[in-house]
Write a structure and sequence with these properties.
There is one protein chain. The protein is α/β, with parallel strands linked by helices and 376 residues long. The protein is built from 14 helices and 16 strands. The chain is 33% helix and 23% strand. Strands 3, 5, 6, 7, 8, 15 and 16 form a seven-stranded mixed sheet that branches. It has a six-stranded parallel sheet with strand order 11-10-9-12-13-14, sandwiched between helices. Strands 2-1-4 form a three-stranded antiparallel sheet, with no helix packed on it. Helix 6 crosses helix 13 and helix 11 packs antiparallel against helix 12. The two termini are 22 Å apart. Bound molecules: NADPH dihydro-nicotinamide-adenine-dinucleotide phosphate (NDP). The site of NADPH dihydro-nicotinamide-adenine-dinucleotide phosphate has 27 residues, from helix 2, helix 6, helix 7 and strand 10.
């Protein structure tokens, strides 16, 4: 393993950086049980291009995607995104480091990096096609990195970036909302008690929207505390009737998918540009099962058919939302956090020695915010 120049420079001030290898939780194969392994022999990543930043991870957090990726979800498309040439050559993605959020400290920068310098405290959402944050160090491009909110600890900060980038991409790019247009818009969030939902409620309230949510009865206090105006308990038998009695919505952010998709579009204002955005698309499942070309074609066809059906029958837009890396968007979130308008919702935290237990927690479902891993 070769360690970067700045780590050698900083060797006296940070003894742990003297090592050329680092601790990490990795998988060497996909599977459900027993595949997560702790190693101290993962090479410390280096700044490979002039726009890259090396970050010492203080805290990471887990998302449902980590659980699915451990089992092989999305492998075909993510491998293509990682390195198209290596897919052709049949090269392996292992050992793979999971973990999509990072809060930490910059230790090295490429020569073109201007936004951050070594010593800066930063946060970021690590794209799923890159090595993750359940390790002592991670590299990202400058564009993906943002200064961490000053008021948050690293543990708190690590709970936000991935859900924030996802929610912003879904609400802004697919849902057509923004700070200046969301005021008084009626938004429905399904599955609001989890990571994306608890962030989205706060973001939309900060933007002045009216927010209705669905969640289990025992999450009502949490979501109301975050600002939800109306709360519908989906476990009570009459939740759809209650939603149908309400004024119709401008935007629906669906964190649940499945059956929800069948009734949700009927809750939107017809013929007025209203949008249904689901985060639960079949794209990766289809590329996994049918191969890249057939899977993408099938997913594209299904999206096209649903979009056409909804626009023709009731004049509403049907869209898929996806996480998108976006450091500048996190800069804006950072301001909202430091202004006290967005709070971290950390449901559980685990030390680095207990990453398998943290995975188990997320796998058990019923999230109420986020599960964080303290790496330092
Ligand atoms: P979480 O697991 O953190 O939250 C899901 C929440 O939904 C839980 O609080 C759960 O609580 C609640 N829930 C489950 N079933 C229902 C239901 N029928 N109605 C209302 N609430 C329900 O997930 P995230 O918030 O991180 O992500 C949400 C979804 O979006 C996930 O499916 C995730 O995979 C997906 N996602 C997709 C991305 C993309 O790029 N496309 C990016 C990020 C997330 P309880 O069961 O107790 O009610």
């Amino acid at each position: 393993c070769v360690y970067p120049a700045s780590l050698r420079r900083n060797a006296c001030s940070s003894p742990s950086a003297l090592r050329s290898c680092m601790s990490a939780w990795v998988i060497d194969q996909y599977g459900t049980d027993g595949v997560l392994k702790y190693t101290e022999e993962m090479p410390v990543p280096s700044v490979g291009s002039t726009s890259e930043v090396l970050i010492r991870v203080h805290a990471a957090s887990l998302n449902p995607l980590d659980i699915s990726m451990k089992g092989g979800y999305g492998a075909k498309l993510l491998n293509l995104r990682r390195d198209p040439m290596s897919v052709m050559a049949g090269a392996s993605e292992f050992p793979l480091v999971l973990g999509r959020d990072v809060s930490g400290e910059v230790v090295d920068c490429g020569s073109d990096v201007t936004h951050v310098v070594p010593g800066d405290e930063v946060w970021a959402a690590v794209p799923p096609w890159k090595q993750g944050s359940l390790a002592e160090f991670v590299t990202l491009t400058e564009y993906e990195v943002s200064h961490k909110p000053k008021l948050l600890s690293h543990t708190e900060a690590a709970s936000i970036p991935y859900v924030a980038n996802t929610a912003l991409s879904a609400l802004v790019n697919a849902g057509g909302l923004c700070r200046d247009s969301a005021s008084n818009k009626r938004v429905l969030i399904t599955g609001a008690s989890g990571g994306v939902g608890t962030f989205s409620i706060q973001l939309l309230k900060a933007w002045g929207a009216h927010v209705t949510v669905t969640c289990s009865q025992n999450a009502e206090g949490l979501v109301r505390g975050l600002g939800a105006d109306e709360v519908v308990d989906y476990t009570a038998g009459d939740s759809l009737e209650l939603l149908e009695m309400m004024e119709k919505f401008d935007v629906i952010l669906d964190n649940v998918g499945g059956e929800t998709e069948e009734w949700a579009t009927g809750l939107l204002k017809p013929w007025s540009g209203a949008k249904y955005v689901t985060l639960v698309s079949p794209l990766l499942l289809q590329t996994d099962s049918m191969g890249l070309l057939d899977g993408m074609l099938q997913a594209g066809l299904s999206l096209h058919n649903k979009a056409m059906q909804n626009i023709i029958s009731c004049g509403v837009f049907y869209r898929w939302g996806f996480y998108a890396p976006d450091g500048p968007a996190l800069d804006e979130v950072s301001k909202l956090v430091d202004a006290g308008k967005i709070l971290p919702v950390v449901e559980a935290q685990f030390p680095f020695t207990q990453v398998p237990q943290a995975f188990q927690k997320v796998e058990n479902g019923h999230a109420r915010g986020k599960t964080v891993v303290r790496v330092v």
